[in-house]
Amino acid sequence: MKNVPGRKTDLTDAEWLADVAAHGMVRPSFIPPAEIRAIREMTRYRKTQVDARTSEIQRLEKVLQDAGIKLSSVASGVWNKSSKEIIEAMIAGERDPKVLAQMAKSRIRAKIPQLEEALSGHFGPHHAVVCRQVIEHIDFLDQSIATLTAEIATLLVPYQAAITIICSITGVSRTTAEIMVAEMGVDMSRFPTASHLCAWAGVAPASHESAGKRRPYGTRHGSTWIQRALIEAARAAARTKGTYFSAQYSRIARRRGPNKAAIAVAHSILNVTWHLLTTGALYDDPGADYFLLRHDPAVEAKRLQKRIEALGFEVTIGSAAA
Hints:
This protein is mostly helical. It contains 14 helices and two strands; from the N terminus they run H-H-H-H-H-H-H-H-H-E-E-H-H-H-H-H.
């Protein structure tokens, strides 16, 4: 919380939200009900476990690279069924690339010659010890994540309706929906408008004012937990075909880059979430042609004509026959 001379600090949530909109000030966190606080603690801890698991998989790949084993150059990664069986065999003492390559499964068997070459390294006893410890740690983290996920699902039973609504939004997975509920709750009456929610979450545009001049200043400060979840959902939505969010991402990414496009889509996702939780409706995607249909067809045709002419072609525009 920022301390401003002359400003009271014992404000209600509504008054703080007004400050968010008017002054770009963000309250670090509201105090949600005890049930939501329990879910929040669980989802945050689960995220740390997921991050630790990712780090261990990266460490495993680093050890293999140090041993001259280029498994990830051929396989999709070092942590799939085929790769894990090959690594287990190397830990057990198998070093023959031909024998190891024959353990490949599914589509990777088409790359056995390349796999044999990738497995021709100098995997030593010390590499085996480190790999064994890393794999055991990953297995432990997998079990921890599974336990936390089951417990979170139990705690979220009373909020299943809200989870269903949020999951109907393009790009939002069950895990993302759980994080959103844990961070912002399900009662949208505490946020007067969707803009207040987006400002609180830190995905709304900020501004910097100096000497009477206002300049863009990235995004507002907010909860990094919900920001990360929203950006992951935004990138997932951008990969979908024929949806509003994919079209929005493409339009902005061309002009301002992928990162700002992801933030813009995250903002839209949270904006939609506020409206859906307020009305209780499921998400109805406007479609990828939303941005074209909302414009005057004549103006859009003129824009496309200029683009075609810039490529060195001539084009004449006429009304289609009825």
